[in-house]
Amino acid sequence: MNDFQTIADRVEIEALRGEFTDAAMMRDRTRLASLFTPDGALRMPNIPIELVGREEIRTGGERLQNQWDFFVQTTHPGTILLDGDTATGRAYIQELARTLDGRQGLNYAVYHDRYQRTLEGWKLTERVYEVRYLDTSPLAGTAPHTTQDPTTTPADTTTPPADTTATPTTPAPTPLAPAASFTDPAPAEQLNRAAAALRTGGFTVEILDDAASARIRIKALVPEGASVLTGASETLRLSGIDEDINAGGQYDAIRPRILTIDRATGADEIRKLAAVPDFVINSVAAVTETGSLVLASGSGSQLPANAGGAAHAVWIIGAQKVVPDLSTALRRVQEHALPLENARAQAAYGMPSAVNRLLILNAEPRPGRGTVLLLREAIGY
Q: How many angstroms separate the CA atoms of 126 and 366, rounded?
């Protein structure tokens, strides 16, 4: 490759990085997604979020930006290492942000990039966001709110209005109320919105009064003799469903069998038993009004069955786990569920818990496989 081509490639990649920052600042998620290859990935493990493909990058970004009160990103040039039709690089970021629920901060981060030359020019194949410094102290400044389209020409401001004391014709937007407590049961309308969104995604959904009703319903849903894996769930334990499945004698209960196997010599057997039961019965850390189920795990051993390995899945979910969107769901995992599970793990096993694996179910592609029993009462955490 000659020097002129090298210079041209570096200039185009730098322009690509600048276009990304501009699209993020202008909240143009369609343009931002177009900067990736069709199978490109945007990964933000600190949040944590992983978006693969242009459509996920677009819709996932829209969900994030809908939470912003304001967001400012400044990107500084970093390295670019060319290798024929591919390249790697880094860019350095400073961000100021505040969300509508009051979270705010200043951070410095790094983008770790991979690029690909395409017929449309250079595109991102992967962008990994790594936070290096975070300050969540209250921000002293404010952001002016306006209904003006930022792409239009500003109005002439050289002449002051005739009456500067008049009430503005367009009042400033009213800030949204803070998110509800992660322990409060969701009201009926919120449960109904979540149920409707889940049904649109292919899940079967039943709204039940309480855990006792779910306990009865499980007996009708799971045929006697079926192989059943139960998740390590406080909801199942407190409701009595865990005991019904694992000690009742009506089912081929997987968890008691796993507990009899030596983990050092029988790891493969355990893995296979847990991955493909007839049924998996579990709860989740959060369910969103937009129709996503979020499960968190330290080891990940129970996630394959939930993701699709089990022929059938049933999730029992207390009303306090319903949240508006995926961003709030991930907050609930980190800020509420993890501390409680960590305390339980310390007491039970003498070791802390961690969110090492996250499973997000946005739809159920196999009709009749996934059933959500959404409760009107709070149970579990």
A: 30
Is the pLDDT assigned to residue 163 strictly greater than 80?
Answer: no
How sure is the predictor about 239, in pLDDT bands with cuts at 50, 70 and 90?
A: very high
CA distance 103 to 44: 18
Separation of alpha carbons 105 and 70, rounded Å: 11
- Percent of the chain's residues with pLDDT above 70: 88
Q: Would you say 210 and 240 are in contact if contact means Cβ atoms under 8 Å apart? A: no
Beta strands in the chain (DSSP E): 36-44, 49-52, 68-76, 80-83, 86-99, 104-118, 121-135, 204-208, 227-230, 252-253, 279-282, 286-288, 293-297, 312-317, 322-323, 357-361, 370-375
Q: Exposure pattern of 146-182 as b/e (b: 16+ CB <10 Å)? A: eeeeeeeeeeeeeeeeeeeeeeeeeeeeeeeeebbeb
CA angle (149 as vertex; 144, 150 as ends), nearest 5: 70
CB crowding 349-363: b at 16 or more within 10 Å, else e:
eeeebebeebbbbbe
> Count of CB atoms within 10 A of residue 237's CB?
15
Return the sign of the alpha-carbon dihedral for residues 145, 146, 151, 157. negative
pLDDT of 321-361, one tens digit each? 999 999 899 999 988 999 888 888 777 777 788 899 999 99
Instruction: Note the pTM of the prediction, 2 decimals.
Output: 0.55
**Residues 164-203: pLDDT tens digits?**
333 333 333 333 333 347 888 999 999 999 999 999 999 9
Q: Quick one: pLDDT band at residue 144, thresholds 50, 70, 90?
A: low
Cis peptide before 48 (omega within 30 of 0): yes
DSSP 91-149: EEEEEEEEETTS-EEEEEEEEEEEEEEETTEEEEEEEEEEEEEEE-SPPS-------S-
- Give the per-residue pLDDT at 103: 73
Interacting residues of 377 by C-beta distance below 8 A, sequence separation 6+: 185, 209, 210, 211, 318, 319
CA Rg value for the chain: 25
